[in-house]
Amino acid sequence: MTNHAGIRYVSDTDVLVAAYRHYYAPDLCPGFWDCLSHHLAAGRLLIIDRVYDEIISPTQLVQWVEQAANGWFPATATQSIANAYRRLMDWVQENPQFTPGARAEFARAADGWLAAYAMVNGAVVVTNEVSAPSARRRVPLPDLCDPFNIRYINTFDLLRELGASFHWQQP
Questions:
Q1: How far is residue 68's CA from residue 63's CA, in Å, rounded to a whole number?
Q2: Which residue among 78, 79, 114, 119 is buried most deeply as judged by most CB within 10 Å?
Q3: Given a cut of 60, is residue 1 above it in pLDDT?
Q4: How confident is the model at residue 13 (pLDDT cuts 50, 70, 90)?
């Protein structure tokens, strides 16, 4: 069994939004949110400033994020992260596979900043996105991470690495 102690994880926007709206809705799985709160407080799970800015609804999720992160969202406005972002952006812009619209969307979204933060800080990206090497109309986060050796995992792998376990109790 691999020891994952000390690893820091940075969450993609969709990890939180999709979980909240669907498979880990707070009324169905409050333990999931308790788990995330615990690891946010411990500094193992991070929500960077650019991801926080993308979470605009539902209002209850925005409030949960603000409270769980205690208002602390690691900043991406550092020279080292900006330099890493530029490398990632150059890769996207120079890649003829992606349409101009995909490149423009990438420049607007938090994904590049998320990957740059992880690259600089040795963190693991947590995303629901899956690799799609032939994608043209979007830049899949895993396919951005791969050439730069940025580790990424999905929500379920995150929970396993954090040692989470949710138990049902009969009412």
A1: 8
A2: 114
A3: no
A4: very high
Q: How far is CA 100 from CA 113, 128, 131, in A?
A: 19, 24, 20
How far from 67 is each of 102, 105, 113, CA to CA, in Å? 33, 29, 23
What pTM was estimated for this model as a whole?
A: 0.93
Residues 6+ apart with CB under 8 A from 32: 19, 24, 159, 164, 166
User: Which residues, at least 6 apart from 54, have a Cβ–Cβ distance to it below 8 Å?
Assistant: 13, 109, 110
Q: Other CB atoms closer than 10 Å to residue 116's CB: what's the count?
A: 27
Question: Within its chain, how far is the Cα of 111 from the centroid?
Answer: 8
Task: Give 79's contacts (C-beta < 8 A, 6+ positions apart).
Answer: none
Q: Locate tokens 């820091």: which residue?
A: 8
Q: What is the DSSP letter of 55?
A: -
Q: Which residues pair with 153 in a beta bridge?
A: 126
